[in-house]
Design brief:
By secondary structure, this protein is mostly helical. Helices cover 72% and strands 0% of the residues. It has three domains: 34 residues, no CATH class; 137 residues, no CATH class; 111 residues, no CATH class. It is built from 15 helices and no strands. The chain is globular and about 70 Å long.
Length: 341
């Protein structure tokens, strides 16, 4: 559906005007005028909803989709963690909570993405690379975005008080502020990767907690697995920085490829990928099929990282990496038991 562009500063005035025109006590307004004004208000609502969607659309494949898969599948396979809780929901109840899990992920992602995109330098960068985003396309002003962000952080925590995942929601607010407002994402490549790892753990564990409907216990196997997930992210997530070196250089970011060079950075991804491609299925004793799939995808990432070094090549490689991460996230559900535990 085509959405008419309209400067956001006019939207509140339009809504106010239309609400006055919808006053049924005014005898001068026919039903056709009421319908027309109702449609106009609806269009403004769609406009703003789409503006919010554009803030997060780039993160569907990296955060929203994988976190949703992790939350649902790990809740379904919670017995493989050795967890026994009388509050444990049935499988169909977990699946029915999927919309709630999705809402929790998106509500906690939205203020982070707004914070990440609202500064002048970020808007200038997006005008070149992603001009369709909310701020460079002038669907919202930076000041409006900042006010919205400040409202959304407590709203996300409030939602988490109802759904679960409140600790993770607070953690994401802290990590997001560190990343975007205190040079956590720019000044040091190791800190940047560390924050990314913490963010992934918060999103995935929070999604799992919301799917289960009760707080996650600090059981040994659960802690070990989230530690593995964090280590995987910390050692390989800078693959996403390989195709954005021009923009990162303009912003003065200290990403791994800009600090140590392009090819050395590629090797720091390739070597851990082979290691994790074997270790993750071994951790869960997933059998030959899981091991084969994991190594196949991991080695595809390795080969592409070293051989297909163009911007488009790196973008596609990152998509393959996300596919492998999704496989890693469902491994607990396919476990055949943990013989070493």
């Amino acid at each position: 559906m085509a959405i008419t562009k309209q400067h956001p500063s006019c939207s509140c005035d339009l809504i106010s005007t239309n609400m006055r025109l919808l006053d049924v006590k005014d005898p001068d307004h026919s039903s056709s005028v009421v319908l027309a004004r109702t449609a106009s208000i609806f269009e403004v609502g769609i406009f703003h909803c789409y503006s919010l969607w554009l803030f997060t659309s780039s993160d569907l494949k990296t955060i929203v989709g994988p976190s949703l898969v992790f939350g649902i599948t790990n809740a379904l396979g919670v017995a493989n963690y050795g967890l026994r809780d009388p509050r444990q929901p049935m499988g169909n109840e977990i699946v029915r909570r999927l919309p709630v899990v999705l809402l929790w992920i998106w509500m906690n992602l939205l203020p982070f993405t707004i914070n990440n995109q609202k500064d002048t330098a970020a808007i200038e960068e997006d005008q070149m690379n992603k001009p369709w985003r909310t701020l460079p396309s002038q669907r919202m002003t930076p000041r409006q975005a900042e006010h919205l962000m400040l409202a959304l952080y407590p709203l996300a925590v409030g939602l988490s008080l109802l759904t679960g995942g409140v600790g993770q929601s607070v953690g994401l607010a802290v990590l997001g502020t560190w990343y975007n407002n205190f040079t956590g994402g720019d000044a040091n490549c190791l800190v940047r990767n560390l924050i990314n790892a913490g963010g992934y753990v918060c999103f995935t564990s929070g999604a799992m907690e919301v799917a289960l409907g009760y707080p996650l216990p600090l059981e040994r196997l659960l802690v070990q697995w989230f530690s593995v997930v964090a280590a995987v992210i910390f050692t390989t997530v800078h693959l996403q920085d390989m195709y954005d070196q021009i923009g990162d250089s303009m912003r003065g970011r200290k990403t791994v490829p800009l600090v140590i060079g392009d090819m050395p950075a590629r090797w720091t991804i390739a070597i851990p990928m082979v290691f994790w491609g074997y270790v993750c299925p071994w951790f869960w004793n997933g059998g030959a099929v899981m091991l084969t799939l994991s190594l196949l995808l991991a080695c595809t990432v390795v080969a592409r990282t070293l051989l297909f070094t163009s911007i488009d090549g790196d973008r596609l490689t990152f998509k393959v990496w996300n596919a492998w991460m999704t496989l890693v996230f469902v491994m607990p559900l396919m476990s055949k038991g943990i013989p070493w535990s």
